[in-house]
Amino acid sequence: MADAKVYGILSAKGGVGKTTITANLGSILAREFKKKVLAVDANIEVPNLHLYLDMLGLPSSLQNVIKDEVSIAHSTYIHKSGLAVVPGSFLEEGVDVTRLKNIIDLVKGLYEIILLDSHPHVDKETRAVIESSDEVLIVTNPWIPIVTSCLLTIKLVNEVGTPIKGIILNKVGRSDEEMSAREVEDSLGLPILAKIPADINVYRGVEKRTPVVVEVPKSPASKEFRRLAKLF
Amino acid sequence: MNMKSFVFCCVIFILSASMVSGAGTIASVSVNSYPLSEVLNFSVDPAFTSQNTIIDFTITLRNIGNQPINATPRINITGSGGGLVASLVLTPIEIAVGDDATFISSWNTGSNQVGIYTADMIVGYEGKTTDVVQTSFTIQAVTPPPSGGSGSTTPPVTSAPGTPAAETPESVTPPAELLPVLPPLLPPVEQPLGEGRIRFVKYPIIEETRPGETTTADIVVSNIGEAEITPVDVIVSGVPNEWVEVMSDTAGLGPGDTRSINMGFSIPAGAFPGNYRVTTTLTSGESEAMTFFILRVKPYPAELERPSVTRRVVVDSEKGVSIVGLKVENAGRFIQRLDIVEEIPKDVASHVNQVDFGVPPTEIIEADPVVRWQMDDIDFFETRTLSYEVSGAFEEYSTFVDWPLRQMNILYDISPPEEIVEISRVQALTLLPGDTGNLSITLFNRAIVPISTGLVVDPPTGWRIDPANLSMVLGPESESTLNFTVTAPVRATLGVYTATFRLVYNDREAVKDVSLFVGAPSSDEFPLVIFVLGAVLVLTFIGIYSLGRRIYKGRRKKTVYREDVVSTVQRIKDEMMKGGK
């Protein structure tokens, strides 16, 4: 099997839906497309992928791996969708994120796709994710301030030199006044890969700690995730 | 196309053909069963190991079909050259619809060469292979101990009174005592010591434990000579001093006297897993008698929250029996059932009749012997011990050292899965007494396979609902709407009545209560006409409003492209890329 392609999932602001995208894209690729997918919670400071996947109380995390306390194999857990997950931990401090790339390189041979959920700022954590990625996906909402904040992320990505696969427009359709996909596309000069609708099922899924693609596979959001997954 | 897809397509084809031949009457189609499993996990633990070490293969399957399956996994281990090294055939287990089952099978790396190995897990049922999943592991050379030898490089622990147990430091460096080589023959049961003659009446052969745990080992000796042995000192070597504390009397041992030597082991959390040869030497002056056993420190399992088994073998030379104990510790939650499958080597017992079980097995799988204990009620953090005796005291270790547990099956008591088939929509119905109306209900099959169902209708007393029962096949992930004719009794009074629809599929049942309303009969039709007209007007207004809103939204999106918004963002972008912020 060829080495996995590593995708960093980025945004400069919190709450736009990076973790939702990671959890759902990873789950649908594993569950419906039968891909070998690993999702890594590389949001070192405020990890919460495990909260979205109902994987609480696990004995080890990415932070333990970075600190050489356990191997990455011992911190990889299988979600019920078939998605392999390396969770994060709120409890570990003093973690050297620059080691992330070395750790990801270790397991590239075991998967087809690796998704790195990142920190919602433009800092060294995000830089470590970009440097560990083969391509990045930028998540935004169709609002001018959030779209504008993407520029900071795009600038950092360009500095590192990692290609950008495109934009995932999340929470679409909440208002008539939001930016259209074409406006976002033209503003950022990058292609829109998916327009995930503001679907109540997504929020219910977060509440139930189950990805919407697993909980309500026929929901509008799940259909768009399915369409997005076909691009991988 | 893999086997799963092929079978699935065949079922869809049969279903489609049946529906065509049935002229659209889905009730005439019959697809009763469709087995399908999904491999959730296949892993080896530890993935990096050494020779003569036991490793665990873990397989987790989920039954995603519509009938129970009897899954039979097999693991083929091949070396880097492609040659088959071992084939582990696991005992099948029945998995109910929607349930998960975990199989854990252990294997001793033995003297296989250092290198990378591949394990192919082949699973199937009803004689068909359905999945092949691969993993790999590495047998590494063990780093030589710092002192360069496997002998006792640290002073032995003696039974001198007042010797305290030292602190247990954590270390991952292989200690000098680690014994990665094949074990030697057992020493003689009777040996001269001083003026007398010692008999090892009871002694361990193997004691398994884990890093961070404590365990004990006891040796019983007897002076079968005619003179007193005095004094008798006990020296224990073969493990770091900090691990062991010895408790034994050093006074003289008279003819016919018996003495117990008790050893307590505290294994540090960072102990290097492997086989340690613990040697117990009794001294009297210049004279020595000794015996030894294997203290096996097993690695932690990769998944901490699951049951584990450790083995203890003790020989009672006086009774002429060997006692095997399996300590089952359940660190796994939500376990519905746990199976322990033990294969007793032919050297130990060639037939189940030669084994005296302390805890009778649930099933004798093979008489030569392979047995299974089933535990349906083991609690979280409960420990149980399974034991049995076989005749004879064995002279060599190899039988016992190469004796991993054959298999452990774990069935999880996960919360009941969501309904596979549900009655998703029911149309409300209001009737006048004696009237007949139509009621429709919609069924939704969540499964990815066709499911055969039966629907039974239980109408309120005096009511009539046709058909009263029907059967049908629901296509994968699809809806079906069924129509019923409902007749209210002529003398029905005003109120709400309940009809019950029972949907039966596999071993499950989905029940839906449907409310039927009886309105008051009216001699004057005018108010009803007014009501209907009013309803039509309201619906028309809602329709026009919705249409207008959609047209407005569509127009804005189609016609208003906000150049100013785009140019604002682009200007910020240009400034930022030039170095500003």
List keywords for this structure.
heterodimer; A: 232 residues; alpha/beta; Rossmann fold; 8-stranded mixed beta sheet; 38% helix; B: 581 residues; mainly beta; Immunoglobulin-like; 7-stranded antiparallel beta sheet; 4 helices; disordered N terminus
Distance between the termini of chain B: 53 Å
- Main-sheet strand order of chain A equals 3-4-2-5-1-6-7-8
CATH topology-level fold name of chain A:
Rossmann fold
From the alpha carbons, calculate the radius of gyration of chain B and give it in angstroms: 37 Å
Strand content of chain B: over 45%
Q: Give the proportion of residues in helices of chain B.
A: 10-25%
- The CATH topology of the largest domain in chain B: Immunoglobulin-like
CATH architectural category of the largest domain in chain B:
Sandwich
Report on this model:
The complex is a heterodimer of chains A (232) and B (581). An 8-stranded mixed beta sheet of chain A has the order 3-4-2-5-1-6-7-8, with helices on both faces. Chain A has helices at 18-31, 49-52, 62-66, 100-107, 124-132, 144-160, 181-188, 200-207, 212-215, 220-229; strands at 5-10, 37-41, 77-78, 84-86, 113-117, 135-140, 164-172, 192-197. By secondary structure, chain A is of the alpha/beta class. Chain A has a single domain, classed as Rossmann fold. In chain A, helix 4 (100-107) runs parallel beside helix 5 (124-132). Chain A starts with a strand and ends with a helix. Chain B is mainly beta and 581 residues long. Chain B folds into 4 domains: 33-140, Immunoglobulins (Immunoglobulin-like, Sandwich), CATH 2.60.40.10; 157-331 and 348-368 and 376-396, Immunoglobulin-like (Sandwich); 421-518, Immunoglobulin-like, CATH 2.60.40; 529-581. Helix content of chain B is 12%, strand content 46%. Chain B contains 4 helices and 35 strands. Chain B has helices at residues 3-21, 398-401, 526-559, 563-577; strands at 37-45, 48-50, 54-63, 69-78, 84-89, 93-95, 100-108, 115-125, 128-140, 157-158, 190-193, 196-209, 214-223, 233-237, 244-247, 258-266, 274-284, 287-297, 307-316, 321-330, 335-343, 355-357, 363-366, 370-375, 383-391, 407-412, 421-426, 429-431, 436-445, 451-458, 464-466, 469-474, 479-487, 495-505, 508-518. In chain B, the strands form 5 sheets. In chain B, strands 10, 11, 12, 13, 14, 15, 16, 17, 18, 19, 20, 22 and 25 form a 13-stranded mixed beta sheet that branches. In chain B, strand 34 and strand 35 (508-518) form a beta hairpin. The longest helix of chain B is centred in the last third of the chain and has 34 residues, at 526-559. Chain B is elongated and about 120 Å long. The two termini of chain B are 53 Å apart.
